[in-house]
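User: My instructor asked us to take a sequence, write out its structure as tokens, and then describe one feature of it. I'm not sure where to start. Here is the sequence I was given:
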Amino acid sequence: MPNQDSYLIGLIGAGIGPSLSPPLHEREADELGLRYLYRRWDLDVLGRSDIGELLDAARLAGYDGLNITHPGKQRVVKHLDELSPDAAALGAVNTVVLDD
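Assistant: Let's start with the prediction itself. The structure tokens for your sequence are:
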């Protein structure tokens, strides 16, 4: 991610409505002097399960990164340009950085 003061981040997964990740991440960013907008992309609410389409939509919308949870941790791998060695060994990811 480029050096900036504001970030747009998403959480993609199923049944994530009650997730505490958005307020926790936003509060921690505030403590660090950053503006962090963290939005839920709940597959159940969206009625969609194509992780590739959601990844493309996040790129188009200008998201800086995504956290991926169940059921997308393994599904998203085939849609990524590169993987860290750990992610490649596991065959799953939970953090996607969107950049050039």
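For the description part of your assignment, you could build on this observation: The first strand starts at residue 6 and ends at 13. Try explaining in your own words what that tells you about the chain.
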